[in-house]
Write a structure and sequence with these properties.
By secondary structure, the chain is of the alpha/beta class. Helix content is about 50%, strand content about 10%. The chain contains 15 helices and 8 strands. The protein has an 8-stranded parallel β-barrel with strand order 1-2-3-4-5-6-7-8, surrounded by 6 helices. The termini are far apart. The model is unreliable at about 1-5, about 315-330 and about 345-355 (pLDDT under 50).
């Protein structure tokens, strides 16, 4: 049974998972929510920093009202979240901070050779690096990325710093063409490709304590990746699930798949928790108190989903598959989700265009008639 433990203490485990609310987004945060093009203005920077404080307030609200069965964590950057980072550990959360340059195609240190000083200044429990790495990438790119990650590993080891690697394996054009669409690639190709990347990196001496991985559609796919992590040998490493800005039902499915498997120790989910409520707040559709409450609720729902799946192995196989274009069956819960999502959609204030709303409702009606 999962037990609460002090923040920052010990490694996360299946018995004591780590539930990270991720808000280390920088380029995408400014571009999609604040209209930043080029260099952010001082006003935009102030608003973005205030928004990250709001997200953290939502996480604190959850911690105060619903003690977690595991450990709560915050992944936040220095550029837009320094004020938050300075509060996280004192508030009882595990602190993780990124070292990579946001939006870069190749892994690059945010502060260049000066990255150790920035880490030491904030003293996070974990440092995090994000890399986009496909085994079919050009060899020179793979070598450069591996060298940068090996440098981080060597520094972290020498300075007794724990680190996690967020590994994204985006499809090449050729791979996407071979599998026709993203959903098919994710299910049938990405697990094997991810396993190959893990094997290549660990053989080169890149050995994070935690692999932060994209969700998998099947237990077989997730297990294939876990086998690659285990085969890398000591020191032992664990895995957590990332959210990839997916809808709740999709993230729930990924958590259902991962949680029962030995080797998964939690999640790091960000935009799927706070993006929509924050957008509503910024557009004036919700006040701050409501926004904090919704963020807390979303965060708590994912924790509850993970714990439920962890306590009931096999649930991922018995639940209906997540809604995708490959699985367009209309069930009552899916219809309710669609109708709730598009109800009251306003083309002037919603990110869902009116024509899309009408098309979705037409598809719902057609599916019901056909069923």
């Amino acid at each position: 049974m999962t037990e609460a433990t002090p923040a920052g203490g010990g490694m996360p485990s299946a018995a004591q998972p780590l539930f990270i609310l991720a808000m280390d987004h920088r380029d995408s945060f400014g571009r999609t929510l604040f209209g930043v093009t080029g260099t952010a203005t001082s006003d935009q920077l102030a608003r973005m920093r205030s928004a990250k404080s709001l997200i953290f307030a939502g996480a604190q609200r959850l911690a105060a009202t619903q003690p977690s069965a595991g450990r709560l964590g915050i992944l936040v950057d220095e550029q837009l979240g320094a004020d938050v980072a300075r509060q996280v550990k004192a508030a009882g959360f595990v602190l993780a901070m990124p070292v990579e340059k946001s939006g870069a195609e190749q892994f690059t240190f945010e502060y260049g050779d000066d990255f150790p000083r920035h880490v030491e200044e904030f003293d996070p429990d974990w440092i995090k690096a994000l890399v986009r790495f496909n085994p079919d990438d050009p060899q020179e790119l793979q070598q450069a990325q591996t060298a940068g990650l090996r440098r981080l590993h060597d520094w972290a080891t020498a300075n007794r710093r724990r680190w996690l690697l967020e590994l994204l394996v985006p499809a090449t054009r050729e791979q996407l063409a071979a599998y026709e669409d993203q959903a098919s690639y994710d299910e049938h190709a990405r697990p094997g490709l991810t396993a190959r990347v893990i094997a290549s990196l660990t053989q080169a001496g890149v050995r994070p304590a935690i692999w932060k991985l994209e969700g998998y559609e099947t237990s077989q796919g997730a297990q294939q990746v876990l086998d690659a992590v285990e085969a890398s040998g000591p020191p032992e490493a664990s895995c957590i699930v990332l959210g990839r800005d997916a809808p709740r039902r999709q993230v729930d499915h990924w958590l259902d798949v991962a949680a029962p498997l030995q080797g998964y120790v939690g999640f790091a989910v960000g935009r799927s928790i706070w993006d929509k409520p924050l957008a509503d707040y910024l557009a004036g559709r919700a006040d701050r108190d409501t926004t904090e409450a919704v963020i807390a609720d979303h965060y708590g729902q994912f924790i509850e989903e993970y714990m439920h799946a962890d306590a009931a192995p096999g649930v991922a196989q018995t639940r209906s598959e997540p809604f995708t274009y490959e699985h367009p069956r209309l069930t009552p819960d899916r219809e309710a989700i669609i109708r709730k999502a598009v109800s009251g959609a306003d083309p002037r204030g919603s990110r869902l265009p009116a024509w899309m709303t009408q098309a979705l409702l037409a598809e719902v009606d057609a599916l019901r008639a056909a069923g």
